[in-house]
Specification:
The protein is 41% helix and 27% strand. By secondary structure, it is α+β, with helices and mostly antiparallel strands. Strands 2-3-1-4 form a 4-stranded antiparallel β-sheet, with helices on one face. The longest helix is centred in the N-terminal third of the chain and has 20 residues.
């Protein structure tokens, strides 16, 4: 599993201009089987994406095609995580 941490590097207006394309990208990557969840950082400084896969290079390549990254309004850090435990209640816990 991978956690992609996006950090905004441009003005809120510049980020907002690319938001529709970014959201389309996230949905497309979910349909492709790469992304399994996402959301904004509570701080407002960026977002977080949960990705699945076995190859870090693939996830990094996918993340690099995000309109936010290509549009130079955010940077991304891809963190590889070895899941030790994930509660079956994870989805209900985060959506409650």
């Amino acid at each position: 599993m991978f956690i992609c941490v996006l950090t905004y590097t441009a003005s809120p207006e510049d980020v907002a201009a690319l938001r529709p394309a970014h959201m389309d990208f996230l949905k497309a990557q979910h349909e492709a089987g790469h992304y399994i969840g996402w959301g904004r950082q509570a701080s407002g400084n960026g977002g977080v994406v949960f990705a699945k896969g076995d190859d870090r290079a693939v996830i990094e390549a996918v993340a690099a095609t995000d309109p936010y990254i290509k549009g130079n309004v955010a940077s991304v850090e891809v963190i590889e995580m070895n899941v030790g435990f994930l509660s079956p209640d994870f989805v209900s816990d985060v959506t409650a």
